[in-house]
Design brief:
single chain; alpha/beta; TIM Barrel; eight-stranded parallel sheet; 13 helices
Length: 332
């Protein structure tokens, strides 16, 4: 396992991040602890969870699993934003909810501080200055080391960075977006912002909800029991959204490279992400040790340049306005 700096910070994190969303939902505590132990044994030091995952159960399991590990050896990330109760202040990015959410996460995780505290999504109902001020207070109190965001648009990210600079608030150091060979829309605006402003990128769903794992076939319904088979229409991994000609062409390219390299579909798809300049650490999730082992095999080697290009071409976004116009203008 190699290590990378998180954006423009001095913080070193493993090139793969362990996502803990399955803990308490698809994995019991014993299985979850086994996953964490194996990840740490392989040199991983970066774990990501959220208060909303099973209403705090994921954080509790993660915290108990880390009891035997020196706290300074782990980079622990969690998130705040979504409902954690029925009350009117149990949701959002108000000072009240952020402060209460952080204290509750600290208690569940069994730690004195959170390395990376992330807002889970934009909150249009709360003034941005209030959110950033509250997060800044958490950093200055020692409860939080760094702050980040997830699921922001480019303008939301830029407005946040500008507001922090204007008022002397802590700045976001990372973005956690959905990003994979079958979901590349952040390349139009969001990734350029991260590159320009020095934010680390921690992609979630790097295998497209499992689509890139190799178990799906053209002209066949998804296997029973798979995540995509049970996905509802509003979810990004909904079958009709994933089973497009572009995505099948992408999967074909992954398969060809799998035959060339002897690497699995998941390893190739994750390694392509690791070769993207702005990416710090894709978030891998696993329901079994076997899945974890497969994902860990994405590290320690690199796709050839021509293989990276082949995957990029097969999964390329449509070149639309204004990007097409700007690209042409650069040649004049």
């Amino acid at each position: 396992m190699q290590y990378r700096r998180l954006g423009g910070t001095g913080l070193m994190v493993s090139e793969l991040c362990l996502g803990c969303m399955t803990f308490g939902r698809e994995l019991d505590e014993t299985g979850s602890k086994g996953i964490i132990t194996r990840f740490l044994d392989e040199g991983g030091n970066f774990l990501d969870t959220a208060d909303v995952y099973e209403r705090g159960v994921s954080e509790e399991i993660t915290g108990r699993a880390l009891k035997e590990v020196p706290r300074e050896d782990v980079v622990l990330a969690t998130k705040v934003r979504f409902p954690m109760g029925e009350g009117p202040n149990d949701v959002g990015l108000s000072r009240k909810h952020i402060t209460a959410g952080c204290d509750a996460s600290l208690q569940r995780l069994g730690t004195d501080y959170i390395d990376l505290y992330q807002v889970h999504c934009w909150d249009a109902a709360t003034p941005l200055e209030e959110t950033l001020s509250a997060l800044t207070d958490l950093v200055r109190s020692g409860k939080v080391r760094y702050i980040g965001v997830s699921n922001f648009t480019a303008w939301q990210l830029m407005k946040s960075l500008y507001t922090s600079g204007l008022h002397g608030f802590e700045k976001f150091v990372s973005l956690q977006p959905q990003y994979s060979l079958v979901e590349r829309n952040i390349e139009n605006e969001i990734l350029p912002v991260c590159g320009e402003e020095g934010l680390g990128v921690i992609p979630w769903s790097p295998l497209g909800g499992g689509f890139l794992s190799g178990k799906y076939r053209r002209d066949e319904r998804p296997p029973e029991g798979s995540r995509i088979a049970s996905a509802e229409e509003w979810q990004d991994e909904y079958w009709d959204r994933r089973a497009t000609e572009r995505n099948w062409n992408t999967l074909d390219a992954v398969g060809e490279i799998s035959e060339e390299t002897g690497k699995s579909y998941a390893q190739i798809s994750l390694n392509w992400l690791l070769r993207q300049e702005a990416v710090t650490a894709p978030i891998i999730g696993a329901r079994t040790i076997e899945q974890l082992e497969d994902n860990l095999g994405a590290a320690g080697w690199e796709l050839e340049d021509d293989q990276v290009n082949k995957l990029s071409e097969a999964s390329a976004l449509e070149n639309v306005y204004p990007y097409r116009f700007i690209e042409r203008a650069q040649r004049v």
